[in-house]
Amino acid sequence: MNELDIVPAQDGLRHIRIGVNGMTKLGKLLANTAHLSFHVLGHSGEFRTMENWWVYVRGGCKNHTVCQASASQLPKMALRTLINPYPPKEFRRLFMQGVRSKIEQNPELEDLLVISKSLPFVRYNIERTSYWAYRDWE
Fold first, then answer.
1. How confident is the model at residue 34 (pLDDT cuts 50, 70, 90)?
2. What are the two backbone dihedrals, phi and then psi, of residue 66, each rounded to the nearest 5 degrees?
3. Considering Cα of 63, then 137, then 25, then 27, what sign does the dihedral take?
4. In terms of C-beta density within 10 A (0-12 exposed, 13-18 middle, 19 or more buried), how is residue 97 classed?
């Protein structure tokens, strides 16, 4: 799927738009800001959103038992100071470990994924017309 294939009105029919503005329940639950708590093996604490996990992995709340910080709550200057302590491949692996944990620990989300398995996942912003597609959940 490329940018030209994406027709926002076909969300749920030809693709699943990931984000709070998606038309499907699955797309909204896959959003980084969706409140679906999860734990990640080998890391202490509960993560309420994927944003919480992102901030934790970036070093933003290592001393908390419940990581509640999200990128949108941090001042822009504070975000800039969260220097990724991992090489890109390791950061991606850790982030995807969080995605897998979120899915595995939330049965409703897992069930919705099974139902819509054949549809590609995409993120796009209609206002800015920038599109990118997820090709896998490795």
1. very high
2. -120, 110
3. positive
4. middle
Strand partners, 46: 66
Phi first, then psi, for residue 77 (nearest 5°) are: -65, -40
> 94's torsion region: left (phi>0), alpha (psi -120 to 50) or beta?
alpha
CA distances, 136 to each of 9, 12, 50 (Å):
23, 18, 17
Single out the residue of 20, 90, 85 nearest to residue 55, CA to CA: 85
CB 43 within 8 A of CB 56: yes
Structure tokens belonging to residue 114: 């099974």
Q: How far apart are CA 88 and CA 132, in angstroms?
A: 18
Among the listed ranges 25-29, 70-74, 75-79, 124-128, which one has the minimum average pLDDT value? 75-79
- Token pair in block for residue 10: 């076909």
Whether the pLDDT of residue 137 is over 50: the answer is no
- pTM for this prediction: 0.75
* Residue 38 CB burial class (10 angstroms; 0-12, 13-18, ≥19): buried
- The reported pLDDT for the residue numbered 138 is 39
